[in-house]
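Inputs:
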Amino acid sequence: MADISLSGTPHSVDSIQASYMAQVQRRRLYGGLTLLIFVVLMVSGFNIADDRNAGGFWEGLHQIGDYPADVVSEAWEKRADLPALIAKFFPALVETINIAAVSTLIGAMGGLFLSLLGTRGLAKWPRLIPVFRRISDVMRAVPEIVIALVLIFVLGGGPVPAMIAIAIHTAGALGKMFSEVAENADLKPVEGLASTGASWSQRMLLGVLPQVAPNYVSYTLLRFEVNIRASAILGFVGAGGLGYELRNAMAWGPGRFDEAAAIFILLFGTIVFFDQVSSRYRNRLTEGQAQ
Amino acid sequence: MTATDLNLAKYQTDRLFQRKRLFGFGIPAVIAVYFVYIFFAFDLPGLAQRANMDNAVTLASDSWSYKVHVTRDNRTGVVEYAVEGERKGRYPQGQRPDWVTGDEILTVDLGAGHIVRYLPDNRTEVEIPGFPMIAAQAEGRTVNTNLPDDLPDWISASSRRVGITTPEGRITLTGARTEVFNYFPGWELFWFTLDSPYHGQGLTTILFGAQIDPARGNISGALSDWWNNAMWRHKDVAWAIGETILMAFLGTMGAAIIALPLAFLAAKRFSPIMLVRAATRRLFDFVRGVDALIWTVVLARAFGPGPLTGALAILITDTGTFGKIFSESLENVDQKQIEGVASTGAKPLQRYRFGVIPQVVPVLLAQILYFLESNTRSATIIGAITGGGIGLMLTQAIQTQKDWEEVAYYITLIIAMVMFMDWFSGWLRGKLIGGKE
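Outputs:
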C-alpha cells in the first residue's frame, strides 16, 4: 500500500487536480443550468403575466406617475382642506388600528394555546399534538380575505368580520412561531413545578411563560405591524376602517383625490409609526435577553 | 445578620412582589378594559341584529349540497330541469331526473312521501305527510290555493306567492312560475356537465370500457370534457391558481434581484458615503411603508387589472423589506473571508462575489423562500383587489351569493395551494441550504 501511494504521488496530484477541475466544471454547469432555468422562468412568467394583464407593462410604464401626480397636484391645490380631511378620517384610522390590535391580542392568545398544546414535552394531551399542529397549519394557510368575505356575507360589513379573519390567521402564524420558541424552553422548571403538584395551567404560567415571554412579545409586536396592513387591505373589500374609506374615495375618482391623498398620508404615517415603535421595542426585548 | 438587614431584605422583597403583582394583574386588567371598549366600539351588541342567520344557513347547507330545479313556466307550460337552476346545468332536451315521472301529469317525488304533481291548466298539487293535500292554481299573476288562513311556519302564502319549505325540498308557486327544488348532498357535475357523454359513467367504464363517444377516445375525451366543464370551470381555476403563484414568484424574485444590489448601498460596510446609505434606507422605508394596498391601487391605474399589477405591487413592497433584511445581514458578514479573498489580489467585485455572497446566500435564500410562501397568500388577497388569480374568482363567487359550493371549492384549493407552497419552499430551502436550520 505504502509504496503505491509513494510512487503514485505525482500521478495522484494530477488526478486530484483533474477531479477538482471536473468538480468545479460540474458545479459551474449546475449553477449555470439553475440560473438558466430561473431566467427562463422569470422571463416567461413575466410574459404570461403581461399577456393576461388588462394593460401591458411597456404601455403602462410611462403612465405610472400619472395617478400619483394627479393625486398630489389636486391635494396640493386643496392643501388647506387637508388637515380637516385627516381629522375626518381619523376615526376610520382608529378603527383600522383597533381591528389590528384586537385581532393581534386574540390571535396571540389562540397562538399561545396552540403552541403549548402542540409542543412536545409541554402538551397537556401528548397524543393530540399532531392535531393541534395541523389546526395551526390550516389556520395559518387561510388568507384573511377568505374568512373575511364569507363572514361579511353572514355578519354584514363592519370591523367584526375583519377582526375574526385576522385573528384566525394570526393564531395560526403565531402558533407556529411560538411553538418553535417553546421547543427550546428549559423543561426543568416545569418538572420542578410538577413535583409540587402544580396543574398544567400553573406549570405553563409559572414554568414556561417567564422563559418565552420576551420572544413571544417580540413576535406579537411583529404580527401587529403585519396586521395593521392586513386590516387596511380588508377594509378595501368592505370590512370598515381606512381601507373602506379609501375605496369610496377612489370610486369617486377626480375631484375627490384630496380625500384619497389624506387617506394615503394617514395610512403611510401609521404604518411607519408602528413599524418604528415596534422595532424599537423588539430590539430592546431581544437585546435584553442576550445580556 | 442583624434584624435591620432582615427587615430591609423583607421590605425589598415585599416591594418586588408588589410590583410583580401590579404587573400580573395590571396588564390583564388593561387588556380587559380594552376589550370592553372594543365590545362597544365595534357594536357587538348590535351584531346580532345585523347578522343574517338565514345567510349562514344557506351558506352552510349550500356549500356541501346542490339542488335540482324543476321549473314550469306557467305561460308556456314548458317544464325545465336544471342543476342549481343554471343554464349550464340544464338537462338536455328529452332527459330528466329519474325522480320525475309522468307525461300529462308530472309527478315529482321529493322523497319521504313528499310528492308534487304538475297538473294541466297550471294546477299544482302538493302532498306532504301529516298535512292536508295542497292544491294550487296559477292564474295570471295570482296564485289561488286551498290553504287555510292558519298556516304552520314552514308555509308562507300570499295571493302572489306561496312558499313551502320541507326537509325534503322547497316549493315556490307564483303566477309566472311553479318551481320545485330538490336537494342532494355533494358537488354535482363536478366531473362532467350533463351535456357530456361521460356524465354518470364510472371511472372504470371510462378507463377500460367501450368507447362512449364515437368521435373521441375515452380518456382524452373525458379529460377534455372535465377540463372544459362549464359549471366548475376547472381550466379557469387552474389558470387562476397559476396566476396567483406567478404573482408571488415574480414579485418575490424580482424584489430579491432589485434589493440585493441596493442592500450593498445601504450597508455601512460597503457603502462609505453616508448620504447614499441614508437615501437608500429611506427609500426602503418608503416603499415598505406605502404598503401593498396603495401600490396595488396606484399600479392598477397604470397597468390595468391583472396578474402583472399584483406581481409589481408585491415586488415594490418587498424590495423595501428585502432591502432592509439584506442590508442587515450584509452588516453582519465576517470580515476575515473578505480579507482572505482580497489577499489573493481580488478586485472589489470579485471580493463581493467570493468573500461576501457565499456568506449571506443561505440567510437571503431562507428569507426569499419564506416570503415566497407568505406572498402566495398576499397574492390571493391582492388578486381580489386588482382582479387576477384565484382571489378574484373567490370574490366573484362570493358576490353572486349563491354559488357557495364553488366558494367552498375555491377555499379548499386556496388552503391546499398555500400549504403546498409552504411545503415546497421548505423543501427547496432544505435542498439549497442543506439540512434543517
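Remarks. Residues 3-41 of chain B form the longest helix (39 residues). The first strand of chain B starts at residue 65 and ends at 73.
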